[in-house]
Design goal:
- With 84 residues, the chain is α+β, with helices and mostly antiparallel strands.
- It has one domain.
- It contains three helices and two strands; from the N terminus they run ββααα.
- The protein has helices at residues 27-36, 42-61, 64-80, and strands at 8-17, 20-26.
- The chain has a two-stranded antiparallel sheet.
- A hairpin with a 2-residue loop joins strand 1 (8-17) and strand 2 (20-26).
- Helix 1 runs antiparallel to helix 2 and helix 2 (42-61) packs antiparallel against helix 3 (64-80).
- The longest helix is centred in the middle third of the chain and has 20 residues, at 42-61.
- It is globular and about 30 Å long.
- The model has no long low-confidence stretch (mean pLDDT 89).
């Protein structure tokens, strides 16, 4: 795995999925969650795509502003699924 994926999100994101408490700490964690989940249709699919794009951009660029956007996109996605 490329080292840039091991960068930390701008803040850890705690969430509950299938009754288990989990935390996203790095862009690798976010990428794994996004790849494990099938995007739904409609707005769910758009949220999934926006998060995927933001996480990839942030991991590649390493820019704090991109990291903040990616973290916020992951929050939006997790909220839409009722996990936070």
């Amino acid at each position: 795995m490329d080292e840039h994926w091991n960068r930390a999100l701008s803040e850890p994101l705690a969430y509950r999925r299938d009754g288990a408490a989990r935390t996203l700490d790095t862009f690798a964690d976010a990428r794994e969650l996004l790849s494990d989940e099938e995007p739904g249709g409609g707005s769910e699919g758009k949220l999934h795509q926006a998060a995927t794009t933001a996480v990839s951009k942030a991991a590649e660029s390493g820019q704090p502003s991109d990291e903040q956007v990616a973290t916020e996109q992951m929050k939006v996605l997790l909220r839409s699924r009722g996990w936070i």
